[in-house]
Design brief:
alpha/beta; Rossmann fold; 6-stranded mixed β-sheet; 37% helix; globular
Amino acid sequence: MKTVFSESPLLQAEGIEKRFGRVHACNDVSLDLYPGEVLGIVGESGSGKTTLLNILSGRIEPEAGVVEYAVREGGMRDVHQMGAAERRMLMRTDWAFVHQNPRDGLRMNVSAGGNVGERLMAVGARHYGQIRDTAVDWLQKVEMEAGRIDDLPRTFSGGMQQRLQIARNLVTRPRLAFMDEPTGGLDVSVQARLLDLLRGLVGDLGLAAIVVTHDLAVARHLSHRLAVMRRGEVVETGLTDQVLDDPQHPYTQLLVSSILKA
């Protein structure tokens, strides 16, 4: 994936600390993300990657450290100093969050079209016909049948629910997406097609994304750069191919070798 990044980061984190009891989920983690860049965060279960994602997206407060975002109005804003209403609006406009379980990101008692349309209405859309037309367009973008616009999400397969969640999140053309194991739990064939779809949408929209995954194949397919986490610490960072083809840290070497042996 080739992208030219601007000189100014879209998101910056410095010195992030978070504990759960005796477990150090994040230990002095710092990273940055540039417009149009996809950063993969990889590591085994319990490495702290999902906790870090939730802190970066404002869902969990860190015990120390700062997360700053480049708002459209100009300048960097501390995500955790924003008011709740401002952060909610950011999630409806500039940000998207794709959950591993699509049911966590969908309104299951609302139609497919309604799920997509709700996000449009949250940013001021009011014309029913235009909202429905946009919903149809986005269902087609994620390779769903337009004829199923009035069907409830529970009637879809897991892969189709994930596609619907992606459409719901991206319809407002956000600048940044947070993705937590976006293809986890799906069959291999469904996963491969969804990865291609995500990669195409990210490129077409010029979207920046942070993708948490334990699957190095997913990380290679989607991300420009990797951050490898172990026991709450980032132990290695670099260009994705560089990290995976020539890992420097012993833990990264172990991760890569375990895939090669599988």
